[in-house]
Amino acid sequence: MAIDVNGITLASSAGTALTMNNGATNWMTVNSNGIITRPQTPYMKAILSGQGSFYRGNPVTFGSVQANVGNCWNNSTGYFTCPVAGTYLAGLGGIAAGSLHGAASYVSYGYFYIMKNGGTHHFSHWNHTSYWEYVSMSGLLYCAVGDTISFQIHPSYGYWYGGGDHGNFFIGLTI
Asked: What gap in Å lies between CA 149 and CA 144, rounded to an integer?
């Protein structure tokens, strides 16, 4: 039996699943085991691929945006605009360039940040002299409607390797 609530249909198929949709888009399903899926949850994932060998950014934009559910990510500006209030998970990981690249401009330390509304919300630091070092970080941010989330690699200290598919970034609304 299906119930229409202002154009949104709630339906159960023989008691095995409850779905909420508008005919063209599935907003939520609760299966017979109670597992909830929400395929329209705001989410972005991107990589630095194609950004050149070494990259800094304030805010970071990407060579390849692989997912942008809800169109909340603007790769021209480097900002994710939160469409609803809630807790968002943001994270990044990639190869930080060390001092053995043979150029004085490459330093052995650096900083990266997860920013909320232009201010630092989470940050981390790396310090190594090896050629490559993988660094990562993630954090939860409570955001209001219209808040922005972005990433920064300090513009004066440190580089990330942007060739290949190194440098992965994501933001998503948590349940």
From this structure: 11
Would you say the C-alpha torsion 120, 123, 129, 135 has a positive or negative sign? negative
Distance separating alpha carbons of residues 13 and 109, to the nearest angstrom: 57
Closest to 45 (Cα-Cα) out of 172, 174, 173, 175: 172
d(CA 106, CA 126): 13
pTM given for the model? 0.78
Looking at the predicted structure, is the pLDDT value of residue 175 above 80? no
Split at pLDDT 50, 70, 90, the class of 102 is very low
Shared-domain flag, residues 52 and 101 = yes
* Average model confidence (pLDDT) across the chain: 80
Q: Closest Cα to residue 112, out of 91, 81, 143? A: 91
| Residue 24 lies in domain | 2-37
**What's the structural domain count of the chain?**
2
- The pLDDT tens digits for 133-156 are 788 899 999 999 999 999 988 777
- Taking every pair of Cα atoms in the chain, the longest distance, rounded to a whole number of angstroms, is 70
The answer for residues whose C-beta is within 8 angstroms of residue 82's C-beta and 6 or more apart is: 42, 72, 88, 143, 144, 145, 146, 147, 148, 149, 173
